[in-house]
Write a structure and sequence with these properties.
Helix content is 17%, strand content 29%. The chain contains seven helices and 29 strands. The protein has helices spanning 14-22, 171-178, 219-229, 244-257, 289-295, 332-351, 404-408, and strands at 4-5, 30-34, 47-48, 58-59, 63-66, 80-88, 104-107, 119-122, 127-131, 134-139, 149-150, 161-163, 184-188, 193-198, 202-203, 215-216, 234-240, 274-278, 299-303, 307-308, 314-318, 323-328, 360-364, 368-369, 375-384, 390-394, 411-415, 421-422, 427-432.
Amino acid sequence: MNGRTAQKDGMVSYAEAIRRIVSMGRILRIETVPLAEARGRVLARALEGREALPPFDNSAMDGFCVRSADTERAAAGPAVRLRVGPTIFAGAPLPADLTREAGALRIMTGAPMPDGFDCVIRFEDATVEKDEGGEVLVVGGRVPVGAHVRKRGEDVAVGDRLLDAGRLLGPGAIAVIAGQGMAEVPVVARPRIRVLATGDELVSDPAKPLGPGQIRNTSLQFLLAEAARLGLPAVSEGLVPDREDDVLAVVRGWLDARRGLSLGDVADPAAPDIVVSTGAVSAGERDFVPSMLERLGFDIAVHGVAVRPGRPVLVASRPGTATLWVGLPGNVLSTAAGFRFFVLPLVRSLLGISVAPSPVRARLASPFPKPAGLRFFARCALRHAGDGSLDAYPERRQGSGMLSALAATDAYAVFPEEPSFIPAGAVIDVEPDAAGLGG
């Protein structure tokens, strides 16, 4: 055997498994994508302001722009009367007939402030009278310089740090980038994923009736849907037989296509950065994945973690080909929990973002007994309580093969290794199904 097994003496803790996952490298390749395709990507380089925002002094309100100096005498004496001139609209050039005689100009929100005008009186605060010459703004007090005016560069100045490298780009960040006139964004290349399912008992064709001892291949569809939800490029190898030599020949082709590459490098679409398999990772007679990976020269970093579901999970890497492998148990709840709590942290680590973002906190609605010494990922439903808090209702069916529990719940309640009984009312960590790469 060329591979190396990191452990022979049983399970490791979840924290230790994550520590080993984090040490498996980072993606260094940077690619440039259109801004419209950047949501959910990780910013590869820090971005600084290259345009002042706003680009010119403009009105923050619909109102009248005036010169503060013209209102000074209203502070201690009678009201000041200012002749109203033309209207200034956002996106339109300044009127050509601006004169000194016009002491006040109607101005719309976002319209540029004319030279010499330095403050704005809101329409709702203004008193306007009419005379034979037109309209007069009556100002009963001093208006300070800058009132209701957005100054050039007060939001962003040229050279300001806008976004740090490693930022997961959401709608807010996209808006900031758009505000700088950037059509493209440098992002970290995403890992390519290839998913496969093992199991001679599985049937992938939905039109095919089940034979004796057969079940539907649900885990594979779950993995593809999760990858798509997260925006990760994924290819399905489909269903492979429970025969080590047959699968080994296929995997060798992927490894050959990745020789000399680094994580995230562009390769043949069939050559993945991460292989995610379901089934054949435990200790059964046909659980061939661990021995196959060792024959192929993989270093097995993790095999067996003190969690439920997902205890037999396997994580390995192949030196020289930048290929990672996560082997998940085949039962669907184990596959689902394994993806959320092992594959997703691996992807986050490769992209250089937080492996364990801040969890959501919820109140446990009913008591939950669990095995001592195991971290338990329990399917649960989240509901908003009348007092504004979030309540977590554990699904009564927590068996690893309970497919319907996935559809009946929308989150995981995360229970630490100890204690073995969590009372109702306890505040716990939960991970909603809607969580993305950053949450």
